[in-house]
Specification:
The complex is a heterodimer of chains A (341) and B (85). With 341 residues, chain A is of the alpha/beta class. Chain A has 16 helices and eleven strands. Classes of the chains: A alpha/beta (341), B alpha+beta (85).
Amino acid sequence: MDKASAEHLEAIRRAARRIGRPVTLMEVCGTHTVSIFRSGIRTLLPDSVRLVSGPGCPVCVTAQRDIDAAIELAERDDVVVTTYGDMVRVPGRRGSLERKRAEGADVRVVGSIRCALETARNAPDKQVVFIAVGFETTAPATAAAIREAKRLGIDNFSVLAAHKLVVPAMTALLEDEDVPLQGFLCPGHVSVIIGAEAYRPVVEDYRIPCVVAGFEPCNILSGLARLMRQIERGECLLENAYGIAVTPQGNVVAQRLLDEVIEVVDAPWRALGTIPRSGLALRPSYRPFDARERFGITIGADEDYPACRCGEVIQGKVNPPECSLFATACTGALGARASRG
Amino acid sequence: MCLAIPGRILSVNGESATVDFGGNRMPVCTTLTPGVSPNDWVLVHAGFSITTIDETAARETWEYLSAAGGEDVADLVREVEADDG
């Protein structure tokens, strides 16, 4: 361990001793979850400090109805479904995109929505649909591609929009009195887009410390040390420990682009239900590129497994092994979470 | 999932740039970071540059990614591309 990390860890341990009671902190971002898992940070923390994973993995929080819609699209002969890698394994009610692909559906994994747009341009006799998941880091790319499709008249391109917003999920958790949290470690690359000040309402309205941190272990330990220091002092502050990439106001160009193409709507989250103003949909002027409208996809209901405790896991109420389905029947959202975050 | 990785811009043509990720060259859309020029370091997510960062921070991140991943640079770039979301 490098010297800076060791110092942050010592600061966390010192603060934990002074606080003298259990503390629960939540890392909201899946990238943090992966880094914490790989670096073993949880095992280094004092016993009194519990670090839980929040609803920050876009694959895990994608509602079943959206997976079902993607599968319905993949079943059409004239449609090419394009999506980011992890989405192909997430199960809906009638299997996964991966299974549909094995059955002959045209499902293609792309690293960027630009590849999906290029696919549409090169195959004018096909309808190319992009399954757009992700938080604010990813949504501007979707907006840019839709605007480009409109500008170039690529009419065989459309998007199944299932983007989610981070801050509404955080505040929804805090509205639940059963979620015992003393601080948020806020995502780094989402914050590049939305800016550190986006968390100001969380800090001020809910009186809970928020620290923006990068994804490297040293950054995470630095963020946790700042949270612990605040708790020790009885403070509720917004701090930015990732100033090399995150500004107070974020990427204003990306925000303007998002606002031009996309509007904020109520959105369904896997296992959490509908959270007000937590998702993104295409604005009316771009709705011809909305796959739901183009193909007449009906919005179904979600039917999560009866024993599924995903919702409690991503609210930090229980740990994954406390769910009876963990590592047995569950190879979906939690499995994806455990392996990839 | 929301991981962005640093790269150095080699050339810019309109809103497209060629970016070097530790020896691997990839096309990147610069729509979200107008005004970037060759030799700037940018954080790239899902094929789009989302901000500029300074070289020291970028190199530190690469050191971490290389050490943590244990893979070669091409694998890291592919992993980030495929895992975007």
